[in-house]
Design brief:
Elements lengths: L1 H7 L5 H8 L19 H7 L4 H15 L5 H9 L2 H5 L9 H28 L13
């Protein structure tokens, strides 16, 4: 469910919050990593240094799970930490059903770990605990 919510903008990331509040895109920066990047689902899942250790572990587990069954293109995708691994599901096409389940479970575990890690820090950045109302910078 978390993956679907990320893809559809149903979670309180700065991009979605900014859109619903008319905040200019350049002001929707991630408040967790300080890189100046706009906090989108793609940033959260594939780029944000705040989630770096958890993402690296996820990619390591995917490499182990897939082993020799990964095509060269899929190995490159994993090496790059491409966003499609975290938010897409087509990359598993053609893999055995059990392997698809294991890979999806690995990715979903990462997303849940990252979201749980984000939640307490994000609460401190919000007004009155409202995740959709961040405090002014």
């Amino acid at each position: 469910a978390l993956r679907v919510q990320l893809r559809s903008g149903w979670l309180p990331l700065m991009d979605a919050i900014g859109e619903s509040n008319g905040l200019p895109r350049e002001e929707r920066k991630c408040r967790l990593c300080g890189t100046g990047a706009v906090e989108t689902a793609e940033h959260f899942a594939a780029e944000c240094p705040f989630n770096g250790p958890e993402r690296a572990e996820c990619l390591k587990r995917l490499r182990t799970l897939l082993g020799e069954s990964a095509s060269p293109q899929l190995r490159d995708t994993i090496a790059a930490g491409d966003v499609s691994l975290f938010l897409g599901d087509r990359w598993t096409n053609g893999l055995p059903e059990q392997l698809v389940r294991n890979c999806n479970s690995t990715v979903c575990n990462f997303l849940h770990l990252a979201w749980r890690k984000r939640k307490p820090r994000w609460q401190n950045l919000c007004e009155n605990g409202n995740e959709w109302k961040p405090k002014a910078d």
